[in-house]
Amino acid sequence: MDVTPKTMWPAVKAMLHSVYDQPDAKSVRAQFDRLLDYVEDKLPDAFNHLDAARADILAFTAFPEGLWQQIWSNNPNERLNREIRRRTDSVGIFPTRDAIIRLVGAVLAEQTDEWAEGRRYLGLDILAKSRISLVPAIDTQEVSDTEPLALTA
Question: Is the domain of 58 the same as that of 81?
């Protein structure tokens, strides 16, 4: 949005979000191409930025479709940041830097325990499935400048 005039934000944002709403990888790439066609003449800076970031924006398509929303969403990070903010706001003024580190460290340790033993953001079965489907993708996929690469751990 830094290279887009404020009057065009709603249209560009809607088009970009429509990329993520597609049901499969082929449709995602086609919708992204339509987005680029839309901004090419009207917003050349936005076109250059989006075209250069194509691989990063479409990287989620290398994973199984069941993981897409968890990959592109940053809701868990936002939720964790809100919890840290809530707890630090209730304290107000900290006597030392170590006190802040202890409190935030305790919140992060609590979150780690919850994710390790309680509910998981990405279940082990889904992660195993994504690893199985990604490894063959690397062996058979031709590397191109327009498609994202599949990743393995």
Answer: no
Q: Residue for token digits 């009057």?
A: 7
Domain check: are 53 and 69 in the same one?
no
Question: How far is Cα 14 from Cα 38, in angstroms, rounded to an integer?
Answer: 12
Place of tokens 């088009």: 15
CA separation for the pair 36, 44 (Å, rounded): 10
- Residue 83 maps to a domain: yes
**Residue 60: Cβ within 10 Å count:** 19
Structural domain span for residue 19: 1-62
Is there a domain that residue 151 lies in? Answer: no
User: From the first residue on, what is the mean pLDDT of each consecutive set of 10 residues in the chain (153 residues)?
Assistant: 82 88 91 92 89 90 80 80 90 88 92 74 68 52 48 47
Residue 4 to residue 6: CA distance in whole angstroms: 6
C-alpha–C-alpha distance, residues 35 and 1, integer Å: 14
Give the pair of three-digit tokens for residue 39.
């901004």
